[in-house]
Design brief:
The structure is a homotetramer of 174-residue chains. Chain A is an alpha/beta fold and 174 residues long. Helices cover 37% and strands 18% of the residues of chain A. Chain A has six helices and seven strands. Chain A has a seven-stranded parallel sheet with strand order 4-3-2-1-5-6-7, sandwiched between helices. In chain A, strand 2, helix 2 and strand 3 form a beta-alpha-beta unit. At the C-D interface, strand 4 and helix 3 of C face strand 4 and helix 3 of D.
């Protein structure tokens, strides 16, 4: 199966112009590699990455998945191909984590923190962008508890992220 | 967005050879119309429709979505493009219903019955195939309670299903 | 542990005066036997049974549990001791079924139907009151599918329900 | 309604003898004040506080609630009065947070971190015991993001916790 990259980070309130632009570029680059992306389907970084993917020349249909808290599709942002309405409220965060083969965290407040903590429990790797304030930066290269290690990897440039993803998926059957 | 057709009905235990073959053909016909399909991702009719879609010349990548009870992708059948591992157990049924724009019910035991009851609560139309024993046949053209009506539509031939779907999506913005 | 009796049936819209009064008396009788009750915490039969329990001389604190769809306690009816706010929407129905050691169904539309179907999947016995129109009456003494049997038991008088419950819990460790 | 105190912290793996003994004493003291407690129903600190409550002379029936990941009651520890089997896996953490009127965090790894992050999103106060290593200590008196503040309160002695709880519930209608 085609790899799915999960994007977690601040919603509308916590996402400034710099983060949004980083997201647009990241979405573009991920689609250019043929990855699908999955987000929580709302505003801020979730919208930015989805939009960056959809507006790029690399866009392919079916590549942008949104897993939303509400029970209807209208609640998603305008840049999604496939909307999964969970009706679970913020419990949907864990479905985002389960669906992603690997995650990228950018900025982020309490919601993102809970997702990183979930990812840790589920043994998922999280690439933690250290360019913006928030839990992604704060937890980069840290261990959340002593039961495992090396799941939270500090990253910065989008080119580096793309290289790490290539390595990650190289010898892995999905 | 491209329409998503939800398929509900018996799993491995409740799915005989006739139902499985009907499912294969249905999957083929749905893909030929350019629809995506969503199932609960396990055996029986869920596998049959997914397989019928994937093995047909009309197959296009990203068209077969599985929403599974488990928290990992390996638990899905082998004919899925996009797996959403909910970790919710049989609670995942309601996410299948929420994700589908319209549903097709085939045969079916208690799990299918709960999904038809959910669909009713969420105002979703269910095409109830009356060719096989089960809750789909039993509830075709019936009302589940007196709060709404005409959501459970009796169907039989796959050609008729395709015609009804065309009408259904004609004037609808998804 | 003290047995917990789950009550399922129509909410405010589907609950007429006769059903409500049956519920008041049922709540009273269940508390008099020292049972806890669990409901979905909203109006109609859920309120009636909770209120019948709370207003009776047999009431004991901690006996009336409400498992509500919302994420806050204020959303429950006024006759609950312990409120479990799930934030799961109508997905909370399955938590009600899981929490009950045995269920009593009264009247009921699509929501109740989905709960009876869940109970069947989870091997829970449901006492189906046949005095009022609805899915409880319709499914009394029926089998939902052919994978199991004898889980849906027709009942009518409250005295009979109390006798059946006594037998049911006699040799059972909870 | 009687206040419900949520206890979050390390399960069996992360709970040493000192934490377990602190938990026993805390459970005893909470019951002596007439509070109910709610936990995730498994081992470690969840078991310790429940056991401390159940074994004390202040124990009253119906005071110890367990909200477990599994779909059956047998999965809870042996010191619970009321078991709510969610069938939600680690998603049940948010139901624990929603059910508690206030929380006490002790030690804690990734699971506890996700619960503190949930509590923050739901505007719940968390008393963070600073005596043991873990996320409770690390986040005591910190802010998780800049959207709110003063929800994570550093505590140490059990007597102080009891005083803070008294103040907290004094002018609050539950």
């Amino acid at each position: 199966m085609r790899p799915i990259i999960g994007i977690i980070g601040g919603g509308k309130e916590l996402c400034n112009k710099d983060i949004y632009e980083y997201g647009l570029e990241l979405g573009h680059s991920l689609l250019a590699q043929g990855y699908r992306i999955v987000t929580g389907g709302k505003g801020g970084i979730m919208e930015a990455v989805s939009r960056g993917g959809m507006d790029s020349e690399s866009y392919f249909e079916g590549s942008i998945i949104a897993i939303v808290p509400e029970d209807n599709k209208k609640s998603a942002n305008d840049f999604c191909d496939i909307v999964i309405p969970t009706g679970l409220g913020i419990n949907r965060n864990i479905v985002v984590v389960n669906t992603a083969d690997i995650l990228i965290a950018i900025g982020g407040g309490a919601g993102t923190l809970s997702e990183i903590a979930f990812a840790w429990q589920k043994n998922k790797t999280v690439l933690c962008v250290d360019e913006f304030e928030g839990w992604a930066k704060q937890l980069a290269n840290q261990n959340i508890d002593n039961r495992k290690s090396n799941l939270l990897i500090r990253v910065n440039e989008i080119d580096d992220i793309i290289d790490i993803l290539k390595d990650f998926f190289q010898n892995r059957t999905l």
